[in-house]
Specification:
Chain B: This is Inositol transport system permease protein. Chain B: It is found in: Cell membrane. Chain B: Its main location: membrane. The complex is a heterodimer of chains A (about 325) and B (about 325). Chain A has about 325 residues and is an alpha/beta fold. Chain A has two domains: about 35-140 and about 275-300, Rossmann fold; about 140-275, Rossmann fold. Helices cover about 50% and strands about 20% of the residues of chain A. Chain A is built from twelve helices and twelve strands. Chain A has helices at about 1-30, 45-60, 75-90, 105-115, 125-130, 140-155, 170-185, 205-215, 230-240, 255-265, 275-290, 310-320, and strands at about 35-40, 65-70, 95, 120, 135-140, 160-165, 190-200, 220-225, 250, 270-275, 300, 305. In chain A, helix 2 crosses helix 11. The longest helix of chain A has about 30 residues, at about 1-30. Chain A is elongated, with a radius of gyration of 25 Å. The relative contact order of chain A is 0.12. Chain B is mainly alpha-helical and about 325 residues long. Chain B is built from 15 helices and two strands. Chain B has helices at about 1-10, 10-20, 25-50, 55-80, 90-105, 115-135, 140-160, 170-175, 185-205, 205-215, 215-220, 225-255, 265-275, 285-305, 310-335; strands at about 180, 185. Chain B has a two-stranded antiparallel sheet. In chain B, a hairpin with a 2-residue loop joins strand 1 (about 180) and strand 2 (about 185). Chain B is globular. Classes of the chains: A alpha/beta (about 325), B mainly alpha (about 325). The interface of A and B includes residues 49, 198, 213, 217 and 257 of A.
Chain lengths: ~325, ~325
Amino acid sequence: MKAKKALSWFMVLALSFSFLTGCNALAGKNKDKIVIGAAMPVFDDKWLSYLYDAMKKYDQEHIEVEVKMVDAKNDASKQLSQVETFLAEGVDAIIICPVDTSAVKPMVEEANSANVPVVVVNRIPTKDVLDKIYAYVGSESIQAGTMQMEKVAELLGGKGNVAIMNGELGHEATVKRTEGNKQVVKKNPGMKIVREGTAKWQRAEGIQLMENWIQSGEKIDAVVANNDEMAIGAIMALEAAGKLNDVVVAGVDGTPDALEYVKAGKLKVSVFQDPMGQGRGAVETAVKAARGEKLNNKFVWIPYELITKENVEKYISKWK
Amino acid sequence: MKSQENVANHPAMLGDRVKRAGWKEKLSHLFSRYGIFLIFIGMVVLMSFLSPAFLNVYNLMNVVRQISFIGIVAMGVTMVIITTGIDLSSGSVIALVSVVAASFAHPGEYPLIVPIAIGLAIGVLAGCINGTISAKGNIPPFIATLGMMTAARGLALLYSDGRPIGNLSDSFSFLGRGEILGIPFPIIVFLIMGIISHLLLSKTKFGKYTYAIGGNEQAARICGINVDRYKILIYTYAGLLSAIAGLMLTARVSAGQPSMGQMYELDAIAAAVIGGTSLSGGIGTIPGTMIGALIIGVLNNGLDLLNVSSYWQQILKGAIIVAAVLLDSRKQKKS
C-alpha cells in the first residue's frame, strides 16, 4: 500500500517535471532565436536584390534573428505553398513581398489561422487584406509618379508633349505611378500625354518602344518611364537617333546603372525608392510582430527621394 | 500515310506538281506555298495606309532589326520543330550567354573574340545537352528543354547574383548597335544566318535527314539514318543560334541581364508556326520562319505607330497570330 502511494507520488512528480522541462525547452527555443520567413517574389530583379541584401544584413547583425528567404519565381501559387511551408515549420513571423497583390489574401488568411503575424513589404495589397496583416512596409507608389512628373513639368516649363512608358500591365506600381504622372499632367494645361505604351520593365523593350515612337514622327518632349531600366532603354534609342538633347527622360528607382546616366546628364530625373530602407524596415517590423509589440500605425512608410544631377553623388555612394 | 503527305508537301516536290496542274490549281498551289508571304505583304500594305510613318526605309530597317534576334532563334526552333521536337530553352540560354559573355566583355580586359567564343560555346553546350538528353535518354524534348529552360535561367541568376552586368567595351557593343554601310549589324547577321540555315535545310544531307526524321522517325531509322546523331546536331545548332542572338541582344542593351529573353522561346515558336512550320513535324522552311518573324515585328511596330493602347495590342496580337496561321492552314488543306 505504502509502496503504491510512493510510486504514484513519484509518477506525479516525474510527470510535472517533464511538463516543466518541456515548457522550458519551448520557451527557450523562442527566446534565443526569432525565426522570420521571408516569401519573396523573384530573386532575378536588380532593385529587389538590394532589398534582400538589407534583410540578409539585418540577419547577420542580429544573432537572435534568423531570416529564411525563399524565391517564388514570380509564381503566385508557388508563393502560397512557400508560405504554407513556413507555417508548418512554425516561424515566428512572415514577411511577404507579393508576386501578385491580388493573390496574397489566402496566404494572409492561413497565417492568421495559425496565429503567425504577417508583414507585407513593397507591394501594397487591397484594403480587405490590409485589415488582416500586422503591418505594411513600403513607399506610396503614387507619390513616385507625382514627384517624378512634377520635376519633369518644372524642366519643361509646364508645357510639352509627354510619352509615358508603362511597366508590366496590371502591376500596382505601373498603375499607381502612371496615375501619379497623370494627376500632375492634369494640373498643367500646357502638357499633353501623346503616347502611352508598355515596355514590361525591361531595357530591351524600352529601346524597341522608343524606336517605334521616334519612327511615328510624333513630337515628344519628355519620356516618363515607370522604372529606370525602361528609361535607359529610351535614352539608348534616342541617343542612336541623335535626339536625346531634345527630350527629357525620367525614371523611377535610382538603380546604380541609372545613377551613372543621371551623372552623365542623360537621365534628367529619377525617384529613389529606398530598397535597403524597405528591407530593413520589413525585418524590424516583423521582429516587433514576433515579440508581440503593438503598432500605432499599420503603415510603415519609407519616403521617396528625388534624384537629379545635383544630388546624384549622394546616391552613388549609397550603393557602395 | 503521314510521311507520304509530308513528302508531297515538301517544297522540292511542289514544283513538279504545279507544272502538271491547271491554272486554277496552279494558283492555289502558289498560295499554299507563298500564302504567308502574301499575308505579310497584305499587312505591310494595310499598315502603310493606316500610318504614314510606317513605309520608309528607316522604319522598315527598324522593324527588321527588332525582329532579327527572335528571327535567328526561330531558325533553330524551326529545325527542331521539323523533327517533331520543341525547344523551350532558347530564352534562358540567351540569358545565360548574356551574363557570362558580358562578364568577359569589360573594356580593356580580353580581346573581343573571348566573350564571343565563350558565349557561343555555352549555346553549343546547352544545345548539345538538350539533344543528347532527348535523343539518347529517350526523354520527350518538351521535358528535356523545359529542364534546360529552368536550369539555365537559374545558372544565369547564380552567375550574375541576380544583377545586370554593365560596363561593356565599345567593340562588343558593336555587335548589337553597330552598322556596316548603314545597315545595322544584327540585320546582317540575321540575313547571313538565314541564308546558311536555309542552305543547310534545303541543300544538304543534314537538311534531308531533318525532314526525314520529322516525316517518319521509324522509317528514317530503318533507312539507316543515325537519327540520334542528327537530333543532337539539330539541337546543338539551335543552341548556337540562341547564343548568337544572346550576344547581340546583350550588346544592344549594353548589359548582361539574367532577366533577358523571357518568353523568347514562345515568340520564336510563334514565328516558326506563323511561317508555316507544322508542330506535327516534317514541314517547315527557313524563309517561311523569317517571314513569320517579320509578321510579328510589323505587328509590334505598326500597333505602336498607330498608338494602340497596350491592352488592345495584346488582344490584337493574339488574334492576328492565330488568324494568320488559320488562313494559311486552310489554304494548305484546299490544295
